[in-house]
Amino acid sequence: QVQLVESGGGLVQAGGSLRLSCAASERTFSSHAMGWFRQAPGKETEFVAAISWNDNTYYADSVKGRFTISRDNTKNTVYLQMNSLKPEDTAVYYCAGSRGFIATTLKSNYDYWGQGTQVTVST
Q1: Other beta carbons within 10 Å of 104
Q2: pLDDT, position 31
Q3: Closest to 70 in 3D by CA, of 86, 85, 61, 59
Q4: If we measure between CA atoms, which residue out of 29, 25, 70, 63 comes closest to residue 46?
Q5: Nearest CA to 38 among 65, 15, 13, 69?
Q6: CA 27/CA 88 separation, integer angstroms
Q7: 92-103 b/e with 16+ CB inside 10 Å = b?
Q8: E-only strand ranges, 14-116
Q9: How far is it, in rounded angstroms, from Cα 70 to Cα 14?
Q10: Each residue of 26-82: pLDDT tens digit?
């Protein structure tokens, strides 16, 4: 069973930055699609960003230009650099891994999920 472990969440003021990390327990995941999703209180889980096996990236419109997804295959780790954070970015952020190679925005296309990390942006 593949395990994904997120870290890097916390409390930050609006306009600040955070970097989330997601470490995969299996080396093979370095060549698979990975994504980040988030769930705010009382809302559905939504797509944030994803990266394909060939490093093509995809972003939700709400984070485009502010967030950057990347991967370090030598560390089996995916990152989400979040800049210019807004209070509406407050949510639990989840890392997701797919058995496939092409990243998608659909939650159902991801097979493995981390436990989530809280990001809180204050005004």
Answers
A1: 16
A2: 80
A3: 59
A4: 63
A5: 69
A6: 34
A7: bbbbbbbeeeeb
A8: 18-24, 34-39, 46-51, 57-59, 67-72, 77-82, 91-97, 112-113
A9: 23
A10: 877 768 999 999 999 999 999 999 999 999 999 999 999 999 999 998 999 999 999
3-state SS assignment for residue 29 = helix
Tens of pLDDT, residue by residue over 100-121, are 999 999 999 999 999 999 999 9
Q: Bridge partners of 118?
A: 92
Helix, strand or coil for residue 27? helix
Contacts of 6 (CB under 8 A, 6+ apart): 20, 21, 22, 93, 94, 95, 114, 115, 116, 117
Query: Radius of gyration (Cα) for the chain, nearest Å?
Result: 13
CA distance 72 to 92: 23
